Amino acid sequence: MDSLKNYKAPLRFCPALACAIWLATLALQAADWPQFLGPDRNGISAETNLAGAWPPNGPPVRWEKQVGQGFSGPVVAHGKLILFHRKVDQEIIDCLDAKTGGDIWHFAYPTSYQDDFGFDEGPRGTPAIAEGKVYTMGAEGVVHCLDFQSGKEIWHVDCKKAFLSPKGFFGMACSPLVEGGAVILNIGGTDGAGIIALDAATGALRWKHGDVEAGYSSPIAATIQGKRYALVFTRAGLAAVNPTNGAAYFDFPWRSRENASVNAATPVISGDLIFLTASYGTGAVLLRVENGGTQKIWSGDEALSCHYATPVLFQGHLYGIDGRADPGMQPRPSLRCVEWQTGRVCWSQEDFGAATVTLAGGQLFILTEQGELVRAPVNPKEFHVTARAQILPMGVRAYPALADGCLYARAKDKLVCVGLK
């Protein structure tokens, strides 16, 4: 055996290995947006190859497509786009070619959801692509797991039937979080099923946690002080649980005293700090995780009280939409920059209106409810628009996806792919 120690096998070309390395390189080069709020669930893209200027008529529209109802945002991975929408009496999961918009596969199932307020009756939650599967939750709480390549159903769970999840004000709206082989959902079920984790491979219940009503916020996972957390902003406040077994770490009550109120923005995490924000007079709070609980750093309703959209955090500053985003509400929401550690408002663009904020390459990409895409450099000292373009009709509520130099965005009945390279 000693004679083999210094033996070096001759190098030979292996087509299969070369192909695998090439595909892996492509996967690293092409930035995906596989879940709600992007790769790290924080609204930030790592892409830097974006154009410094747009043509006079705006960035080029690569393709567009008529789609059904829904506030569910598109997600993109490995050159494929997943769209979750509704047409007539079916909730539909479509897989499209991200470069061309061409159809790849189609999956549909019946729905009878009716919105009590006359709003959109499509799905609200954004799909998640993970480990070769697609996960969705519809407006009535039906969770599906499909094969990403073929669209074939692997399993489904009806949370309304299985856990008696209520309809809530605007249907069920959780975007699935895939973490540690489980699908974690904020569903507000009864008998301790406020938050649940389903086995990602089989759909079997792994654990349930809490007798709490669901908010409209989607869960996020984070490692804080060496410990893994699932952080879920329910209607009652923040629940911090062990994502493996659902055991409670701590709870932090944070909700409006008004019954007609929602907690919708996803928590923002940095190090051992957690930021929560809500409207309806609730306000914002920055917490530090310590000693098995939390310490309040600052709180108030004067800094950044976000109604639906989650703010982004960059270099010690938050950028987001402050104020009620309901149609006809006055004053209209403002776009703000807020100092993370203190809550100090650095600047505010009043009467800006409802919008989502995405960050990439040192630029803010702000998609307004009116369908306008606004670009501005990240700057805590001032807000300066460098470009703006009308890319969609009015009625935009879904988050966009930014993948491989393209922005994918949808309004009530239209999906567009806009080139930003």
Question: How does this structure look, described?
Answer:
5% of the residues lie in helices and 42% in strands. The chain has helices at 15-29, 159-163; strands at residues 44-45, 61-66, 75-77, 80-87, 90-97, 103-110, 128-130, 133-137, 142-147, 153-158, 177-179, 182-186, 195-199, 205-209, 220-224, 227-233, 237-241, 248-253, 268-270, 273-278, 283-290, 293-300, 312-314, 317-322, 334-339, 345-349, 355-360, 363-368, 372-377, 387-390, 401-403, 406-410, 414-419. It has a five-stranded mixed sheet, with no helix packed on it. The termini are far apart.
**Uncertain regions spanning at least 5 consecutive residues:** 1-29
Strand arrangement within the widest β-sheet reads: 1-27-28-29-30
Number of helices: 2
Helix percent band: under 10%
Ends distance: 56 Å
Q: Sum up the overall morphology in one term.
A: globular
Overall mean pLDDT stands at 92
What is the topological layout?
Layout: H1 15-29, E1 44-45, E2 61-66, E3 75-77, E4 80-87, E5 90-97, E6 103-110, E7 128-130, E8 133-137, E9 142-147, E10 153-158, H2 159-163, E11 177-179, E12 182-186, E13 195-199, E14 205-209, E15 220-224, E16 227-233, E17 237-241, E18 248-253, E19 268-270, E20 273-278, E21 283-290, E22 293-300, E23 312-314, E24 317-322, E25 334-339, E26 345-349, E27 355-360, E28 363-368, E29 372-377, E30 387-390, E31 401-403, E32 406-410, E33 414-419
Parallel strand pairs: 1-27
Antiparallel strand pairs: 2-33, 3-4, 4-5, 5-6, 7-8, 8-9, 9-10, 11-12, 12-13, 13-14, 15-16, 16-17, 17-18, 19-20, 20-21, 21-22, 23-24, 24-25, 25-26, 27-28, 28-29, 29-30, 31-32, 32-33
